[in-house]
Design brief:
The chain is built from 8 helices and 20 strands. The chain is of the alpha+beta class. It folds into 2 domains: about 230 residues, Rossmann fold (3-Layer(aba) Sandwich); about 120 residues, Nucleic acid-binding proteins (OB fold (Dihydrolipoamide Acetyltransferase, E2P), Beta Barrel). Strands 6-7-8-3-9-10 form a 6-stranded mixed beta sheet, sandwiched between helices. A 5-stranded antiparallel beta sheet has the order 13-12-11-14-20. It has a 5-stranded antiparallel beta sheet with strand order 15-19-16-17-18, with no helix packed on it. Helix 2 crosses helix 3, helix 2 packs parallel to helix 4 and helix 3 packs across helix 4. The longest helix is centred in the middle third of the chain and has 18 residues. It is globular. The structure holds adenosine-5'-triphosphate and magnesium ion. This is Multiple sugar transport system ATP-binding protein.
Length: about 375
C-alpha cells in the first residue's frame, strides 16, 4: 500500500524556480503518467519524489508521512531512468541482486527474489549472461528487474523506453502494463510518447513550465481539455485551431461564426461572454469530416497516404489544417476540399485560452485502463 501526496512543492535552482507550487495526489496502486514539453520539470519532480533532489518548499508525503528529510534509500521507492547503467562485468542475475547484496540480504532470499523478477520479466533464460550479450530491450528489462527486487511501494520511471526502437517500445509498454497489474504497485511514469501516456495511465498529469495544467483520466483530457495548452498537447496529430467569433449564447450552447462566414451551434457554456467576442475553435484532425456541403474549405498543400488513413494538410487563411481522412480518398495536392465537424466534437477557447465548459460530458470521460479489463480478471484498485 502506498499513496503519495505533493503539497505546494517548489524547486529553485539559484534564482530560477523550475517547480512552482505543485499539488498532487497519487492513490494506492495507481498508474500516474507525467507529460509535458522538454524542460517543464518532469525529471526534477521525479528526483524530488525519489529524494535525489531536495524540495525548496512544500511537503512530500508517502502514506501520509512527511518524508522530505528521509534519505532516498529509506523512502521505499525504486527509480528506473532513461539511461540505465548495468554493471558490465556482472551477470544479469548479479546485476539484479546487487542492491540486495549491499543491503546484506541472505543469499537464498536474494536468489528467490531475482528468480521471481526474472519470471515476471521473462528473463529466466538470460540470467547468466553479461549485459553486452543482451539486446537493448533485454537490458531495459534487467534495469526494471533491479527495481522490482527491491520490492518498492512506489516505482518511478523516467522515460524508461525512450532508447528502444518502435517495436520494442510497444512490447515493453505492454509488459509494463502487465507488470503493474501483476505487482499492484503504485507507479509514476514520465514519457514523451502520446500512446504510452494514453494507454498506460489511470491518471495523466500535464505539466507546463513548472505548474500542473490539468490532471485527469486519459479520456477526460482528450475529450475535456481545460485549456488550449492541454488541448494542443494531448492527442496526435495535434488539434487544429481556427479563429471564430461568438454570435449568440443560450443555455444550450453558443452560436459561432466560422472563418468562411457560416454559423454553427456548439454545446458549450459561453454565458459569461459578450457577442462578438473573438474565440478559438479547436478541432481534432480525426473529427474533421470531408463533406461537399461542409462549412469549411481550403486547398490541399500536402497529402500523406499512410495506408489505412490519409493525412491532408489544408491551407485555410493563415492556418494549415490537418485532416485525418480515409485511406482511399481520391484527392490530390492543389485540390480544394470542403469539410465539416460534429458540433459536440468542437472545442472553444476564450481570449485567455480557457476552454468554454462542455455542456455534454463525454460518456467515456471517466474511463481508465482498469475499466478495459473483463470483470473479475483482476482486483480493482481501492
Ligand atoms: N541542477 C540543475 N541546475 C539548474 N537548473 C536545472 C538543474 N536541473 C534541471 N534544471 C532546469 O530545470 C528545468 C526542468 O528540467 P527537467 O530536467 O526537470 O525537465 P524535463 O521536463 O525532465 O525535460 P525533458 O523532457 O527534456 O527530460 C530545465 O529548465 C532545466 O534546465
Ligand atoms: Mg527529463
Amino acid at each position: 500500500m502506498a499513496t503519495l501526496q505533493l503539497r505546494t512543492i517548489s524547486k529553485r535552482f539559484g534564482d530560477t524556480e523550475v517547480i512552482k507550487g505543485i499539488n498532487l495526489d497519487v492513490n494506492d496502486r495507481e498508474f500516474v503518467v507525467f507529460v509535458g514539453p522538454s524542460g517543464c520539470g518532469k525529471s526534477t519532480l521525479m528526483r524530488m519524489i525519489a529524494g535525489l533532489e531536495s524540495a525548496s518548499d512544500g511537503d512530500i508525503l508517502i502514506d501520509g508521512q512527511r518524508i522530505n528529510d528521509v534519505g532516498p534509500a529509506d523512502r521505499g521507492l525504486a527509480m528506473v531512468f532513461q539511461s540505465y547503467a548495468l554493471y558490465p562485468h556482472m551477470t544479469v542475475a548479479d546485476n539484479m541482486g546487487f542492491s540486495m547484496r549491499l543491503a546484506g540480504v541472505p543469499k537464498a532470499e536474494r536468489r528467490a527474489k531475482v528468480l521471481e523478477a526474472a519470471r515476471i520479466l521473462q528473463l529466466e533464460p538470460l540470467l547468466d549472461r553479461k549485459p553486452k550479450a543482451l539486446s537493448g530491450g533485454q537490458r531495459q528489462r534487467v534495469a526494471i528487474g533491479r527495481a522490482i527486487v527491491r520490492n518498492p511501494s512506489i516505482f518511478l520511471f523516467d522515460e524508461p523506453l525512450s532508447n528502444l526502437d518502435a517495436a520494442l517500445r510497444v512490447q515493453m509498454r505492454i509488459e509494463l502494463a502487465r507488470l503493474h497489474d501483476e505487482l499492484d504497485a503504485t507507479m509514476i511514469y514520465v514519457t514523451h510518447d502520446q500512446i504510452e501516456a494514453m494507454t498506460m495511465a489511470d491518471k495523466i498529469v500535464v505539466l507546463h513550465d513548472g505548474v500542473v495544467e490539468q490532471v485527469g483520466s486519459p479520456m477526460a483530457l482528450y475529450h475535456h481539455p481545460r485549456n488550449r495548452f492541454v488541448a494542443g498537447f494531448i492527442g496526435s496529430p495535434k488539434m487544429n485551431f481556427l479563429p471564430a467569433t461568438l454570435v449568440d449564447t443560450t443555455p444550450e450552447g453558443v452560436t459561432i461564426r466560422l472563418p468562411g462566414g457560416d454559423e454553427r451551434h456548439v454545446p458549450v457554456d459561453g454565458r459569461h461572454l459578450a457577442a462578438d467576442t473573438a474565440l478559438e475553435l479547436g478541432l481534432r484532425p480525426e473529427h474533421l469530416v470531408l463533406d461537399e456541403q461542409g462549412p469549411l474549405s481550403g486547398e490541399i498543400k500536402v497529402l500523406e497516404r499512410l495506408g489505412g488513413q490519409t493525412s491532408l494538410y489544408v491551407q485555410m487563411g493563415a492556418e494549415l489544417i490537418t485532416i485525418m481522412a480515409d485511406g482511399d480518398v481520391a484527392f490530390r495536392v492543389n485540390d480544394t476540399v470542403r469539410f465539416g465537424f460534429a458540433p459536440e466534437r468542437a472545442h472553444l477557447f476564450d481570449g485567455e485560452g480557457l476552454a468554454l465548459p462542455s455542456l455534454q460530458q463525454h460518456p467515456l470521460a471517466g474511463l481508465t485502463r482498469h475499466d478495459n479489463r473483463a470483470p473479475g480478471t483482476a482486483e480493482e484498485p481501492a
